[in-house]
Write a structure and sequence with these properties.
- About 35% of the residues lie in helices and about 20% in strands.
- It contains 14 helices and 23 strands.
- The strands form six sheets. Strands 20-21-18-17-16-19-22 form a seven-stranded mixed beta sheet. The protein has a six-stranded parallel beta sheet with strand order 2-1-3-4-5-6, sandwiched between helices. It has a three-stranded parallel beta sheet with strand order 8-11-12, with helices on both faces.
- Strand 5, helix 5 and strand 6 form a beta-alpha-beta unit.
- The protein is globular and about 60 Å long.
- The structure holds 5'-deoxyadenosine and iron/sulfur cluster (SF4).
- The site of iron/sulfur cluster has 9 residues, from helix 6.
Length: about 500
Amino acid sequence: MTTIAEPRSYQVITYGCQMNVHDSERIAGLLEAAGYVRAPEGVQADVVVFNTCAVRENADNRLYGNLGHLRPVKLAHPGLQIAVGGCMAQKDKDIVLARAPWVDVVFGTHNIGSLPVLLERARSLAASQIEIEEALTRFPSTLPTRREAAHAGWVSISVGCNNTCTYCIVPALRGREVDRRPGDVLAEIQLLVDEGVQEVTLLGQNVNTYGVEFGDREAFSKLLRACGRIDGLERVRFTSPHPAAFTDDVIAAMAETPNVMPSLHMPLQSGSDRVLSAMRRSYRADRFLGIIERVRAAIPDAAITTDIIVGFPGETEADFAETLRVVEASRFAAAFTFQYSIRPGTPAATMPDQVPKQVVQERYERLVDLVGEIAWAENRTFEGRTVEVLFAAGEGRKDAATNRLSGRARDNRLVHVAIPEGAERPRPGDLADVEITYAAPHHLNADAGPTNLRRTRGGDAWAAQQAAAAEPDAPRPAAVRLGLPTRT
Ligand code: 5AD
Ligand code: SF4
């Protein structure tokens, strides 16, 4: 008698940036293409994959903490496999196995496609497998995908970074910038739109230098304009631009392309010219403020967000005061604030005058207060105004008690929308207009509910995904598909 084995289940745990979130969708897609199924919530998966980040030290600590917790679980679950990929794996290679020998597979940022084979090999040989490649040979976009949201997708336009910011480990881990050809990018976007996607986010470590590799300095603005010609594509976002390479053709393309959203995430890192120079960020505070001024002149409703590092080596109180000044002047809708974290191997790690922890903490708290105060004041200008919301999956669940659903305004602000008893419920991917009734520092509330609800193809795609999930034998939803051929 033959027995049919249950398919093995998997779980992917992601740390870090959007690039990693996107890579995790590839990892999930690869595993599904290899016959694995996603483990239901609360059920121990047969394969646990950590997609790691190395940008700050606390990510390292969290990873080893989690691996430690899994050790007894593994002893109790024979057959459980653990894989570690992403930037930390790339950085630490053998250290992962030295610290956590119960890990089965270690794979790098350039070879996520090898994961299913490595898992299989680890199982059949009963030995841990490490495979780290130094350079990218194939764009990850050629790999299968399992998208988290039916209505939204990430599209990478480049990987790697040619900058040498002295605090940053990324160039050492993701390598030099490789740009994907515009035709390939647009073909992928078209395919996503055909599957019901309403919103795409173009991803690159440094999107403004897109095209330098193939000799077109205006390639990014042309790409934005080409996105504007794709029928059915409602919203286009991108992350992240570098202030040094930010050119006015990008501002013009943003302003003149209706589906490119009025939101801009542009990392400041520091407001002090001295610190920017030590960071090897080749712009100065005035240039940063100049870009903001031109963006606001061309796109008055743009929400601008940023990243800031506090306590870079040698940062004085006067330098920090410059950061506060630029933050005041920039009126950020939100800012991701980080305490400087030493990354061994980067130039800043060995710089003199590392700032003592208490000083960093104290400055950090002042910065967070200022950022929150400005974000709240900016948000309050929305009270009484009507904004268009694209409902999102996931973000609203926590608010079940108040029956609110969440979504994003065009400028990417988070909006919680009350759904009146008996009213039609928007699905993730649907659009509506809502009046803002209350502003908090990090979100807006719309308590009168949605008006002018538009049921969209994105909402239909979400409904199809739900139906497929409830019916395991049904054909795969469009959000799971094989990769695209590309020239890279
Ligand atoms: N320490 C603190 N923050 C860092 N970032 C990058 N490297 C470091 C570091 N060594 C921050 C930057 C970057 C964001 C993704 O992480 O602000 O924009
Ligand atoms: Fe790191 Fe600077 Fe490149 Fe961003 S631009 S990835 S901070 S080196």
